[in-house]
Amino acid sequence: MTTVTVPATTANIGPGFDCLGAALSLYNRFHFSQLDAAARFEIQVRGLAAERVSTESDNLAYQAFLKLFRHIDQGPPPIRLEIDLAVPLARGLGSSSTAIVGGLLGANAIAGFPLDRSEIIALAIAIEGHPDNVVPALLGRCCLAATGSSDRWVICDVPWHDSIKVVVAVPDFELSTATARQVLPNSYTKADAIFNAAHLGLLLRGLETGEPDWLAAALSDRIHQPYRKVLIPGYDALHQAAIAAGAYGLVISGAGPTLLTLTADSAAEPVARVAHRDPELVLGAGRRVGGRCAAHIVSDSLGRCSVFGLFGFVAHVGSFLEWIVMHIEGCVKIVFALDPDKAVFFRDERQIDRA
Q: Taking a C-beta distance cutoff of 8 angstroms, is the pair 219, 252 a contact?
């Protein structure tokens, strides 16, 4: 059996639209077993919103699995794919990227590792259409992706200062990426382009140094957040309340509706309590009944492939707010690496001759 464990991700982080993202220690797991030649495929899905995920051939992880075999011009073997879900669907936390990465890496392991890491990254970006989720899902931590002069992707690891903590508030409603992209304009003014370029540069330095003034200024954006925030009830109220509680700023995670704040260590719990005191700040008016918002306090642990517990409940379990301790880290977890130079992001329980 080959098991691939892929982290949730947060993308954009304010001015880094479609190029900046970070991995979070909340994971989906993909288990691959080869079947007898007479079989075709079997898919079983367990966990969070499992009933919403297809078990037919259009399953995204299975489609990514097939994509890699087409890419290397080989016929795919019959497999059983078992998926354990913990990343919320359609919340701006990269659930689709976990499926793409899980399918590609499972296929690469079963095929004997024909593709190296850069080829896997390029294929994942081609499937997803943008790099800001799949790249940190593959590599972990915080990553910046851009195309070079030859149109090849250039990936940079972004240093993340130990003092910077993150609180992620996950509302109990969905927002599709397609809907969130439809509200964006087709063009922008030169002033807005310059504004975002300057603020992205400032954000990268702020993340590296932990300088509070830089971080407080850097999270502003004119490319996507002014247009998308209208899709998230309570955005402005939570933004003001988070700043008052000590956050450097509040941004939309990916396409939303998840909201993310950067804070100093001492402000993380006060900021999380903002949503707990008044869930309507996150959920919006009328979303109390049957609704729940999960606030995740995220810390930074910078180690490249450490293994973390999935959930650590701190308080308020069963109320509108659950605090779940997470870490900015988490590439696809290494449990057993067959070839560190080519494919380290999997566990393979088969007996492999490494000679």
A: no
User: Quick check: helix, strand or coil at residue 20?
Assistant: strand
Q: What value does the mean pLDDT of the chain take?
A: 77
174/307 same-domain check = yes
Max mean pLDDT among 39-53, 65-79, 115-129, 219-233 falls in 65-79
pLDDT value of residue 25: 74
Residue 318 confidence (pLDDT) above 50: no
- What single-letter amino acid sits at 250? L
Contact between 53 and 59 under an 8 Å Cβ cutoff? The reply is yes
DSSP assignment of 98-146 equals: HHHHHHHHHHHHHTTS-S-HHHHHHHHHHHHSSSTTHHHHHH-SEEEEE
- Give the 3-state secondary structure of residue 236: helix
- Same domain, yes or no, for 47 and 115? yes
- Give the orientation angle of helix 117-128 with respect to helix 95-110, to 10 degrees: 140
Range of the domain at 98: 2-157+333-348
